[in-house]
């Protein structure tokens, strides 16, 4: 067995201290300095280290106990039944390993099973509550606390309409469930708080936890909390012999039970259910952060039993985290197509939001200073929906003293011309002094053929590099002169791939004016600005000849963009390039709906998630064709948020701000 080094021992000790600090904040004080997902990620790292080095496991490790201590303001309630915490699974491999372990354990007990029947239930992200009834009447309601002792919150739980004060049968029973607040109620509550000048609540889970811990039950009653009950911990009458039947039994007693559960014949069906609810979870009015898996047969549950801290018969199958922790291994600079230098963090690869990430942007020098991020730091990485991975926090408490601050360079060789760089006046960004370095040229080429510009399918960065290295292209218009024989013998090309590429180039000859403008890499001109310019001027010739005074008055353009456009088209090299391109490219006529004939005029849309019947670009085009605007972030003034499958944080922003949300079907109806 490998012996843990001093560095590993120190890492374990720091992880324990950090986890305990944040778990106390989260579970006991109802504060959240970091997200629950980030805390899970730290805990997962600690579990792996303790598994690899069992000699480091101590009785007081966070992995060896359930939760924090109860608040002193409440009466302490000893639990008659220990309140266990499920172990977590994060990947399909984890859940298959759980299935294999379950079958091995049962085989060791003389019960052989090729496939086990499971019940998959939604994991509600709220506050666990334990309810005790005597002769059918509610006696006490308690929080989980540390698993042995909880807090008496009966006075608050009695205010929740979904909690029966008297059961349909006069049983002595203890049940377990989750207290939660709906997203709609959070939006309502935040509107009221904003009117009264109070700070807004961040998420329904924190509000539910805070409401249950209020000393005044009127506060809990006003917040309209809800519950789902999912387990019988103890009963004076026999409990059904299957988990699915137990849920029916709970409902018959008068409790609210979440209806979205499924009996799964094998682990493959469990995984399918988990995948399905990853897409559907955000559309529910309550927070869901995974799926709880339990062996269906109670006799098998009894045979499997418990470890020191968790049941063997069940596991929490978490959805891919949008926040995780990882370590920065290096920081390098990337040169963009306009010469702007972007610092990029190279990370220990980590799974976040369903994909493995090894790089994240640090944006600019000021952001590095604000975060005080250093090479070797442990950081929180965030990826929500379609957002690029972003470092949101440095966990300075995990520093060892060996971390290296990043020193912004005086020169960058890749910029050419001696590597000189300069800070852009009035901005946080640095750029190459030389505006035409080879690195910038390549970036501009990548951009020219990208989906937002000419959209030449099959002409990615690696192919562009090959064409540049073999001197087959030097100017954008050279793409349209490429012949089959020019590229057939180059690396990466076979006859079929050459034919496909030439076909894609041919299709790209017909372009819209906005895409054409975007492709030129005009400083300050992105997709939205290109749309504004096209609507106003209608033709490329009118834009080329526009005066600064004409440009700065256009809504969405202004003086900075106006000056950039004028300067670009005054350059004789740029004018010559446009002239050459127009020999090969046909620009579609700009269609601007007549006033009064644009049904979506004055409406703004935010798109999030994946639409099944069209791409995001197609959805944008349809909105704009009807006079609507597509914007990047949600505000109170947003007209609609269009939510497809797996929507990002913009969906949650819409809930908080009370912005109308359209699913795909409702969006199509609106377009009609």
UniProtKB/TrEMBL annotation:
NAD(+) binds at residues 85-86, 121, 144, 178, 294, 318. Coiled coil: none annotated. Its EC number is 6.5.1.2. Its cofactor is Mg(2+); Mn(2+). Belongs to the NAD-dependent DNA ligase family. LigA subfamily. NCBIfam families: dnlj, PRK07956.1. This is DNA ligase.
């Amino acid at each position: 067995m490998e012996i843990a080094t001093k560095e590993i021992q120190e890492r374990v000790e720091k992880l324990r201290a950090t986890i305990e600090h944040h778990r106390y904040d989260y579970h006991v004080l109802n504060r959240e300095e970091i997200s629950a997902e980030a805390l899970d990620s730290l805990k997962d790292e600690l579990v792996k280290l303790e598994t690899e080095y069992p000699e480091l496991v101590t009785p007081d490790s966070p992995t060896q106990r359930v939760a924090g201590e109860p608040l002193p303001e409440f009466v302490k309630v000893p639990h008659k039944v220990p309140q266990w915490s499920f172990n977590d699974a994060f990947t399909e491999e984890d859940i298959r390993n759980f299935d294999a372990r379950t079958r091995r354990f049962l085989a060791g007990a003389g019960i052989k099973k090729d496939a086990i029947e499971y019940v998959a239930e939604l994991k509600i992200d709220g506050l666990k509550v334990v309810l005790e009834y005597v002769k059918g009447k509610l006696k006490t309601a308690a929080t989980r606390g540390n698993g042995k002792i909880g807090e008496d919150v009966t006075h608050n739980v009695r205010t929740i309409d979904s909690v029966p004060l008297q059961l349909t049968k006069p049983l002595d029973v203890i049940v377990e469930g989750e207290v939660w607040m709906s997203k709609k109620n959070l939006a309502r509550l935040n509107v009221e708080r904003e009117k009264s000048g109070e700070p807004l609540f961040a998420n329904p889970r924190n509000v539910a936890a805070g409401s249950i811990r209020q000393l005044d039950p009127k506060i809990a009653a006003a917040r309209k909390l809800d519950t789902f009950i999912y387990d019988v911990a103890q009963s004076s009458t026999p409990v059904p012999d299957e988990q699915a039947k137990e849920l029916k039994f709970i409902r018959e007693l008068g409790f609210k039970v979440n209806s979205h559960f499924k009996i799964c014949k094998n682990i493959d069906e469990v995984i399918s259910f988990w995948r399905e609810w990853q897409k559907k979870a955000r559309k529910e009015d309550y927070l869901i952060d995974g799926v709880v898996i339990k062996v269906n047969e109670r006799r098998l549950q009894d045979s499997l039993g418990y470890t020191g801290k968790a049941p063997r018969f069940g596991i929490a199958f978490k959805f891919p985290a949008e926040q995780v922790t990882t370590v920065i291994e290096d920081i390098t600079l990337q040169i963009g197509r306009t010469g702007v230098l972007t610092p990029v963090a190279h990370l220990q690869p980590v799974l976040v939001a369903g994909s493995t990430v090894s790089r994240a942007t640090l944006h600019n020098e000021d952001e590095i200073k604000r975060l005080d991020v250093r090479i070797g730091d442990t950081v929180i990485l965030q990826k929500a929906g379609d957002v690029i991975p972003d470092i949101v926090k440095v966990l300075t408490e995990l520093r060892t003293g060996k971390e290296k601050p990043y020193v912004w360079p005086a020169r960058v060789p890749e910029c050419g011309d001696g590597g000189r760089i300069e800070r852009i006046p009035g901005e946080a960004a640095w750029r190459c002094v030389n505006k035409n370095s080879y690195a910038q040229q390549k970036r501009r080429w990548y951009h020219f053929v990208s989906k937002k510009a000419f959209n030449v399918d099959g002409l990615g960065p690696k192919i562009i590099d090959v064409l540049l290295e073999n001197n087959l292209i030097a100017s954008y218009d050279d793409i349209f002169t490429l012949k089959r024989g020019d590229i057939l013998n180059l690396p990466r090309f076979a006859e079929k791939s050459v034919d496909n590429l030439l076909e894609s180039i041919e299709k790209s000859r017909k372009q819209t004016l906005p895409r054409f403008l975007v492709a030129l890499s005009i400083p300050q001109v992105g997709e939205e600005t290109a749309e504004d310019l096209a609507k106003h001027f209608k033709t490329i010739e009118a834009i080329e000849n526009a005066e600064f005074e004409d440009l700065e008055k256009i809504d969405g353009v202004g003086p900075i963009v106006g000056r950039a456009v004028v300067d670009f088209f005054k350059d004789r090299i740029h004018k010559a390039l446009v002239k050459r391109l127009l020999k090969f490219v046909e620009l579609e006529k700009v269609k601007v709906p007549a006033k009064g004939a644009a049904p979506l005029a004055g409406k703004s849309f935010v798109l999030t998630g994946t639409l099944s019947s069209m791409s995001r670009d197609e959805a944008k085009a349809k909105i704009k064709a009807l006079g609507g605007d597509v914007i990047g972030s949600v505000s109170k003034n947003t007209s609609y948020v269009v939510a497809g499958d797996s929507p990002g944080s913009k969906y949650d922003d819409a809930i908080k701000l009370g912005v109308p949300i359209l699913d795909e079907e409702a969006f199509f109806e609106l377009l009609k």
